[in-house]
Specification:
The chain has 306 residues and is an alpha+beta fold. The chain contains four helices and 15 strands. The strands form three sheets. The chain has a seven-stranded antiparallel β-sheet with strand order 1-2-14-5-10-11-12, with no helix packed on it.
């Protein structure tokens, strides 16, 4: 058998010497499966990298638009806004919170408030002589002609309070008014029955009561002789939420939309009675709900006199 490369040895050429360099390509071609194109070529110098071009509007435009639409839907469905700040001196009118209106006659907020609904009645002994009660003490009307002699617990002012009081828990009630020029609020038992000063009512005029006065041109939130002006109230159905746990008294307008009007923040230390003032010819009705249940924090007892 012939040894490899024997023909080169016979010619006197030695592998590995300079004379063999021309034979290298031939030797490579003679090796099975080896081609000249498989030889490694040293890479040339690297060119500087070009940073990719980023167009934010082009890449994220669709995503931004989708997120914007989603946020709009969530804002439309969110609950009522946070409570307004504490009462201050009479000043510029507050702008209504754009998140406050709830586009539903029976919105989720109102249904939640109904969980603490209380059926109230007026206290006949507290009613001013010009205030006539009817419908099982659920309605009061201010008439020009006074009733008989005033009782020891009746208000000299055109006011009446409820027979029920609250000292703990959370409570909600609704009132329907015939027109503007009415005031609704809550008061401690020691609120005086006597007229003091030139005011026609004393709800919110001192430290023992808080009130929302509704006039034709606007509303005012009163406490301790200080008032805050509010926008006009268009509806005649009003809601009052008294949360004694968190110390909040909140008023709502329920027609044509549910809208938060004002929130008082206070530490309530004594029983609170719902109380009302109404101008001549006005009527107030305490709305009742059949499913409303009494609450342990509700009391029906004689109020204190001063």
């Amino acid at each position: 058998m012939t040894k490899p490369f024997s023909r080169y040895q016979a010619s006197g050429q030695q592998l590995g010497g300079p004379a063999c360099l021309p034979l290298v390509p031939k030797l490579i071609a003679a090796v099975p499966g080896t081609q000249e194109s498989q030889l490694l070529v040293p890479p040339g110098p690297l060119e500087p990298l070009t940073p990719p071009q980023w167009d934010e509007d082009q890449q994220l435009g669709g995503l931004k638009e989708s997120l914007s639409q989603l946020c709009g839907l969530l804002l439309d469905k969110e609950g009522p806004p946070e409570a307004p700040t504490e009462t201050a001196d009479l000043g510029p009118m507050e702008a209504p919170d754009p998140r406050a209106p709830v586009l539903s006659l029976i919105c989720p907020l109102r249904r939640k408030l109904w969980q603490n609904y209380r059926n109230l009645t007026f206290d006949p002994d507290s009613a001013n002589r010009h205030l006539y009660l009817s419908r099982q003490d659920q309605q009061v009307k201010h008439c020009l002609k006074p009733r008989g002699l005033a009782g020891p617990g009746s208000f000299e002012l055109w006011q009446v309070q409820c027979a029920q009081s609250f000292q703990s828990g959370r409570h909600y009630w609704e009132v329907r008014t015939s027109s503007h020029s009415v005031t609704l609020g809550v008061a401690y038992p020691e609120l005086t029955r006597r007229k003091q000063g030139a005011h026609t009512d004393n709800i919110g005029r001192g430290p023992h009561s808080w009130g929302l006065c509704i006039q034709e041109e606007g509303a005012q939130a009163w406490h301790n002789g200080e008032a805050r002006r509010l926008p006009a109230v268009s509806g005649k159905l009003l809601g009052v939420d008294l949360d004694l746990v968190s110390g909040c008294l909140t008023f709502y307008s329920l027609e044509p939309e549910a809208q938060l009007l004002h929130t008082f923040h206070a530490i309530f230390t004594r029983p609170l009675y719902p109380i009302f003032w109404l101008l001549e010819g006005r009527t107030l009705t305490l709305c009742h709900r059949p499913e409303a249940k009494p609450h342990p924090g509700l009391q029906e007892e004689a109020s204190g006199l001063s």
